[in-house]
Amino acid sequence: MSSTAARTPAPQPAPHAARVSILMPTHNRAHLIGESIDSALAQSLPPAEIIVVDDGSSDHTVDVIAQFGDPVRYVRQDNAGKSAALNRAIGLARGDCLLVLDDDDLLPPKALAAHVGALAAAPEAGFAYGRFARFSGPGAQASASTDLEPLPTPGERRLLVQLMLCCFLPNPAWMVRREVQLAAGPYRTDLPRGQDYEMILRIARAAPGVYADAVTLYQRKHVGARRTSRGTVVAKDTVAGWIDAERVIFGEIEATWDDAEFRPYDDAAGTSGAEAERLAVLQRAVILFMRKLHAPAERHFARYAALLGDATPGERELEIAGDLLGARYGIGELYEGRHDPGPLGALALPQALRRAMARQLPWRMRELVGSGRLGAAARLLGWGRRALGSDALIGAAGGKLEAYARRARIGAGSGAS
After folding, report:
1. What is the rounded average pLDDT for all residues in the chain?
2. What is the pLDDT of residues 11-35, one digit of tens each?
């Protein structure tokens, strides 16, 4: 139903199902929020309440919301940012479970039912999460999207660690029990972006999650504006902005979390105490390196080397090390001269581990060569040799890497960037 059409009363929730509060912060999205609310009202398991907190909109948002009548509770506040609006909505919510729906996104019809069903089947879980599909254009086309965010296989590593490796859960893709959200605390108002990432890390640290095994969100892709207590931020998909936000988030994690939070696996079967300690320290080092916190990462790599001593790294250690160059927002600092490879190269790490650390270098090289950035590819190869060693690079990629290197050297000699 469009935002200007006549509204029908909201269906009533099932008598014994968990009561779900849908929380919607909004700012100047009158042209989109009606469609988002329609998707909430069309749920097979109806929400107990929909709370819209208008963060000082100057458009006709209030008129759009008024068309829905009683099914939607509307609250207005002075413009203070998305996090402040979310915190206001959480304080007003009375449901057993909370789900944030952004004012431009859509819920598939069975999203709430999938979350509630997963939580009912796993009473120990504090939150449920599903997959999401990206779309652009009319909301009616959202269900046809094939742009699905990949998820790590549940159980391969602890969910908290999987989330630290990559943020694959935007806010509307998860539902949290109200008591878990309240225990986690309010959303941070000082971050210009990444507030939902910082929050899901806190929630996943506090309580286990359960996979709902469904697409639970259609996420609209476009450019918008967002206000925080530090000012207005244009929410373009700029790599630098996300890198900066994650550096802040993980800098604080590094300062306040202990090694146990980085423990990659739940099971202890076949893992000695010494190996479990090494795994946690190595995982910590890799995550911090991926988040561009190179100095603390290198300190933890040194700790790992000391813990390993003359032992041989196991398969799990090699698997963890293989993520080193897998940062979602690229590794530009390595080939742009902003990271000194010397400290990493000086560590007493075994050859097998160095080969694993170089595992993703070939496709990074291929990406640069394929885009004509031959000089950058040559510099990345140089970084790899100094940080990981030539033998490790050859062991990781063999002839393919040498072929990329030859092309890179030729391109660099001709002045390619």
Report:
1. 89
2. 444 545 789 999 999 999 999 999 9
Q: Is 93 helix (H, G, I), strand (E, B) or coil?
A: coil
CATH number of the 20-237 domain:
3.90.550.10
- Domain positions in the chain are 20-237, 257-413
Q: How far apart are CA 281 and CA 264, in angstroms?
A: 10
User: Is residue 138 very low, low, confident or very high in pLDDT (cuts 50, 70, 90)?
Assistant: confident
3-state secondary structure of 258: coil
Q: Which pair of structure tokens corresponds to residue 62?
A: 């209030």
Nearest CA-CA partner of 18 in 209, 128, 212, 177: 177
| 3-state SS track over 134-179 | EECCCHHHHHHCCEECCCCCCCCCCHHHHHHHCCCCCHHHEEEEHH
What per-residue confidence (pLDDT) applies to 154?
Answer: 78
Q: Is pLDDT at 118 greater than 90 in this prediction? A: yes
CA distance linking residue 38 with residue 9, whole number of Å = 11
Closest by CA to 149, choosing from 161, 128, 163, is 163
Which tokens go with 280?
């946690």
Torsion angle (degrees, nearest 10) of CA 250, 255, 257, 259: 100
Which of these, 226, 236, 224, lies nearest to 195 by C-alpha position?
226
Phi then psi dihedrals of residue 383, to 5 deg: -60, -45
**pTM for the structure as a whole:** 0.88
CA 194 to each of CA 54, 167, 190, 235, 342: distance values in angstroms, whole numbers, following the listed order: 20, 9, 10, 11, 32
Q: CA-CA distances (angstroms) from residue 182 to 17, 81, 327, 354? A: 21, 20, 31, 43
